[in-house]
Amino acid sequence: MSTDVRVRIAPSPTGNLHVGTARTALYNYLYAKRYGGTYILRLEDTDEERSNENYTRDIVDGLRWLGLNWDEGLEVGGPYPPYRQTEKIDHYSTMANQLIAKGKAYLCYATQEELATLKEEQKASNSAPRYDNRGRELSEVQRKHYQDEGRIPSVRFLVDEPQVVSWHDQIKGEIAIDTSDLGGDMVIVKSNGVAIYNFAVVIDDVDMKMSHVIRGEDHIHNTAKQLLIYEALEHKAPQFGHAPLIFDLERQKLSKRKHGEAVHIDHYRILGYMPEAIVNYLGQMSWTHPEGKEIYDLEEAAALFDLDKVSKSPAVFDLARLNWFNSQYLRNLPLDTIVERAQPYLTTYDTSRYTKAELTQMVASVREGLTTLAEIGPALSFYLSSQLDVNDELKASVLDSENAHKVLSGLLSTLASLPWGDHQGCKKAVDGLGKELALKGKELYWPVRAALSGKTQGPDLGAMISILGAERVKSRLESALNH
RNA sequence: GGCGCUAUCUUCUAGUGGUUAGGAAGCCGGUUUUUCACACCGGAGACACGGGUUCAAUUCCCGUUAGCGCUACCA
User: Fold this and answer.
1) What are the angstrom distances between the C-alpha of A6 and each of A35, A37, A92, A198, A299?
2) Residue A44 approaches strand B within 7 Å at CB
3) Total domain count, chain A
4) How much is the ipTM here?
5) Which nucleotide is nearest to A129 (CA to C1')?
6) Å from A286 (CA) to B12 (C1')?
7) How far is the CA of A454 from the C1' of B27 (A)?
8) Which residue range(s) make up the domain with A292?
9) From A19, A330, A397, A443, which residue has the greatest number of CB atoms within 10 Å?
């Protein structure tokens, strides 16, 4: 009985693309690919107050940037539109009315104030906050009375208590929750006529024929509620899998409120992290490659992913580890890719003066030492800046000695014979000069480094010379001698 | 308060009824290098606690503790 795998990521546009959402999207994506299924993006925008089109844009762009492209849904279309909940408000109402007709739901006339009072009383008596189901048995007279008062009802779903709702969670195993702990009859349609999350989700998952629901474990209690709705709808529920949450270093759920931009995927893009690294990092937080491999791409993960290998316990978001992944991709991705991705970080320089080949050589000479794309700018600064500033301290300690002058002027006079374009050759030329002058090590190399790059550390010296080229090497040597 | 989930080095994790409890990041030391980085080698570093079950428990069961999550006419 192999039903078609259909999974979804269903973000709410009440904030930018969140790290946790990206992780959930990733697991859904991988699961769909693993089983040849369909991965769907749908927007849960029923909270009209907080939803914002800019957030939708950020989420859509972010998911695409990560490479988590969906087969069906928002901006892509598919057989079960619409993929925005606000476009099917009437449908949810219709479904709610069907439940009312079946006696599974009813109109509740309680006001916000009344509910708030109830809650306060419960809090005062130290009992669990819940709706007291007062609207279940309203008489026609009472109903009429409330209507005449101008009260606008919400729709509440009737929760039978006590009753145990249980399911086999594909990640957590058996989970059982008593309906008595669910807070009483729940609102499914707000008095403004808009369905509430727990109801709209179920309707959509039914409409869109979802086979599996993979989401964060903060939804476990929602799953119990939703299972009751599936039952009332007389519809088979999908399989559920609740992934562990992502924590911060203090072991708290990663949240926009507490962490601000640090939970925003695009923030990492701006900082110079690459999608491959982020996806790889996010993936391995709670899922381990069967062979223990650390570095793998989406395709490889998709071939191996499964929910029973997903950890049950939460993972801490550790930037040091993300850094490591990013640095791995920075030195292993094709050089052309890195050069292209470095462009946004080089806008302070006039790179049009250099050919693509030259820029590529520059990037190649520095990328081993970097962790983010953003560091490429500073690392290439000495290549790209028209003027090189050598600080006084360095001048005094490295450039001012007699030997330093010998090295620099010696190199200056051999410039014409340097094998430009041949990194190793240039390095050999410097070594040859060293032999002549009976100098080596720091005494030989540091003056050249300082004169050419303003630093005593950096890429291979031969590469530096060769890439800078005769003209710039000449002028920098001269200004180092004459400072 | 109620309910739920979780518990292996600092962090992410592997793993098994009998293992010197493995790997990765970070940290420390070394090799290499003109330097930084990379790479390589090495080091420190963990089964929360208490009961069971068992010849034997990190592993299975129960409890405790702790952490986290959920408890809206938010999603």
Assistant:
1) 9, 6, 21, 19, 18
2) yes
3) 4
4) 0.95
5) B71
6) 8
7) 31
8) 6-75+247-316
9) A330
